[in-house]
């Protein structure tokens, strides 16, 4: 009898194991397929002659803007991006004009231009497998290009990471949109995304589990890191006029072969690891990483990585740095960093006045820059 029980137990275990494999393998195949498609787009988006994209629309704007420090007058566009749309009193009539305003390496990002407008009416995020119509999660998983706007101001607490699909614009203009106290954004193996005029802060780790990542698929996800925006193997991304602070991990991370990215007009405060482009000294696939960081304000309470880059190319242009606590711009693994027209207001602490940090030159920065 004992023998029979043992045999039955073994059979049950084998059956459960095979069922688990059956559930895992479709997920693996799904993400492998998505990764292959994303890799192809990455290769197409990479520009071997970086100078053309570095100078695209940025050349006239590399002067500093000290005269605007205390400006309180009427609308005044201060850079090529804002000149494109910001002082147009009828901007809400043609929201999609914004898609023509990107510059730098992410200039090709058009998001949901040409698609339908999706209005988010519900700030809840109760069901991450079958999200309700009208929620932000329901909007970002749709297959078609969408220009996503908001019915009114709202605070959205994401239950789990918000996994987006390609060809989406999240446009928070005309409302106060806070993504806070929950999980953050995940852009994994996708392309052509614009995130504009929202506030992301106090992002937490999330437990993971079953999460829908497209209309046709949901699968098991491990615990999320707590990044504000995580860009993983994705390209043609533009993040503009986004305010960020106090996330569990990074504010913006772009890793694993991501490229063609612009981060512009942002405001960042109260955080340690601000921006990480290239996550590993051992992953040379980030050699194709190209990112423009332009017209941002790095405010009070920031410590390091504004940005920190491995392998790739970063154009850091006309940003304002205010009293960092460790260093401003860092790099390792042979990156190229073109710092142009930035203003650095160093802290009073004599131990933290270095603008740049290169772990290949000085061992003292190894611990500071470790991922």
- Span between termini: 56 Å
Q: Mind telling me the C-alpha Rg?
A: 22 Å
What percent of residues adopt helix (DSSP H or I)? 10-25%
CATH architecture verdict: 3 Solenoid
Quote the beta fraction.
25-35%
Unreliable stretches, pLDDT < 50, 5 or more residues? 3-22, 360-371
How many discrete domains? 1
Main sheet characteristics: 9 strands, parallel
User: CATH superfamily, please?
Assistant: Single-stranded right-handed beta-helix, Pectin lyase-like
Protein architecture, described:
With 371 residues, this protein is an alpha/beta fold. It contains five helices and 29 strands. It has a single domain (3-369), classed as Single-stranded right-handed beta-helix, Pectin lyase-like (Pectate Lyase C-like, 3 Solenoid), CATH 2.160.20. The chain has a nine-stranded parallel β-sheet. An eight-stranded parallel β-sheet has the order 3-6-9-14-17-21-25-28, with no helix packed on it. Mean pLDDT is 87; it is low at 3-22 and 360-371.
Feature tags:
alpha/beta, 8-stranded parallel beta sheet, 371 residues, globular, Pectate Lyase C-like, 5 helices, disordered N terminus
Task: Spell out the blueprint of helices and strands.
Elements: H1 2-45, H2 50-54, H3 80-85, E1 116-120, H4 136-140, E2 146-150, E3 154-156, E4 162-163, E5 168-171, E6 177-180, E7 185-188, E8 191-196, E9 199-201, E10 209-214, E11 217-221, E12 229-232, E13 235-240, E14 243-245, E15 252-255, E16 259-264, E17 267-269, E18 271-273, E19 275-277, E20 290-294, E21 297-298, E22 302-304, E23 308-310, E24 313-317, E25 320-322, E26 329-332, E27 336-340, E28 343-345, E29 356-358, H5 366-369
Parallel strand pairs: 1-2, 2-5, 3-6, 4-7, 5-8, 6-9, 7-12, 8-13, 9-14, 12-15, 13-16, 14-17, 15-19, 16-20, 17-21, 18-22, 19-23, 20-24, 21-25, 23-26, 24-27, 25-28, 26-29
Antiparallel strand pairs: 10-11
